[in-house]
């Protein structure tokens, strides 16, 4: 087992930086000969970044509270007195941990300890921080990460991706396979992704762009906006509007406090729309057959093709162009269906 403790750093292949700030690593240790396949990082007050495809190494960033720029000597003194900084490699596993030895009574003496890890692309991660952001990029494999006080940024990652934050936004792009991301206090943006995608926030908006596969996106406190989505989409909000453009496949869209706008370029299994407190605008592809069940305070529908069924002020129920995929719409306000 190769183990590198902070107090042995001068005897290890680690290099101290001469200036200490948030952009300069406090120490750097090469991982070129370690063949790291799994990364475990745990820190109580800093950010974590893991990136594949560059020269393998780990960088440690240490700054004072409120981003104070401290001297190397002052940082070493505080680390020795109040923290445990441990970097170890064993059997292809990298373990990097930074934690307080005890409660620090003077908050001005506390440190933020962050890690940047550069590894091979085929690397799995298990990351945890209570006070910073997490960023992963250019990786394959299983990725698990959690923060209590920062954002999540995922770019060009293929595998099983599971992440959670209690106080930040989420941005995921150019990623695939299985994606499950949750935040309790921020917005979510997902673009150029495919696979099985689940996104959830309790306090922000959701933006979806160019997604393919199964997509479930829910928020309790914002709007949902999407475009260029192909597959099965479930989008819901309790506190905003829903706008989905250029959608091909199946849609289940709902809101309790806003309007809904959906533009379908192709309908596969179904369209289901539930608008409790606003109007609904639905555009369907021309010449396709549907089984319609559309209800609202006032239903406006411009028929494109042959229709058999019942058309009234508050509902339209019947078959369009001989029938086909079910289209169910509920709205407390006006409902407009065009082609």
Automatic annotation (TrEMBL):
Transmembrane segments: none annotated. It comes from Mucilaginibacter gilvus. Keywords: Signal. This is DUF4097 domain-containing protein. InterPro entries: Toastrack_DUF4097 (IPR025164). Residues 1-19 form the signal peptide. PANTHER family: PROTEIN FAM185A (PTHR34094:SF1), PTHR34094. Residues 237-329 form the DUF4097 domain. It comes from the Bacteria.
């Amino acid at each position: 087992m190769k183990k590198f403790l902070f107090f042995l750093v001068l005897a290890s292949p680690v290099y101290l930086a001469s200036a200490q700030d948030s952009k300069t690593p406090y120490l750097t240790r090469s991982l070129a000969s370690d063949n790291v396949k799994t990364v475990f990082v745990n820190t109580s007050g800093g950010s974590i970044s893991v990136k594949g495809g560059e020269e393998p190494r780990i960088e440690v960033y240490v700054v004072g509270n409120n981003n104070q720029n401290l001297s190397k000597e002052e940082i070493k003194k505080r680390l020795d007195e109040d923290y445990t900084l441990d970097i170890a490699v064993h059997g292809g596993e990298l373990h990097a941990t930074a934690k307080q030895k005890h409660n620090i009574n003077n908050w001005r003496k506390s440190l933020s300890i962050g890690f940047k890890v550069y590894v091979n692309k085929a690397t799995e991660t298990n990351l945890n921080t209570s006070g910073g952001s997490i960023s992963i990029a250019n990786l394959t494999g299983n990725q698990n990460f959690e923060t209590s006080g920062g954002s999540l940024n995922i770019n060009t990652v293929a595998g099983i991706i599971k992440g959670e934050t209690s106080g930040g936004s989420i941005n995921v792009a150019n990623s695939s396979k299985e994606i499950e991301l949750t935040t309790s206090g921020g917005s979510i943006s997902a673009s150029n992704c495919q696979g099985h995608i689940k996104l959830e926030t309790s306090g922000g908006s959701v933006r979806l762009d160019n997604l393919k596969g199964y997509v479930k996106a829910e928020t309790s406190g914002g709007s949902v906006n999407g475009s260029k989505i192909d597959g099965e989409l479930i989008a819901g909000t309790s506190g905003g509007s829903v706008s989905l453009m250029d959608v091909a496949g199946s849609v289940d869209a709902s809101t309790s406090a806003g309007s809904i706008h959906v533009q379908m370029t192709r309908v596969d299994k179904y369209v289901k729309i539930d608008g409790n407190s606003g109007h609904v605008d639905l555009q369907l592809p021309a010449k396709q057959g549907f089984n319609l069940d559309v209800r609202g305070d006032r239903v406006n529908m411009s028929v494109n093709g042959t229709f058999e069924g019942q058309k009234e002020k508050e509902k339209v129920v019947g078959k369009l162009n001989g029938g086909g995929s079910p289209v169910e719409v509920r709205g407390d306000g006006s409902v407009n269906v065009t082609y």
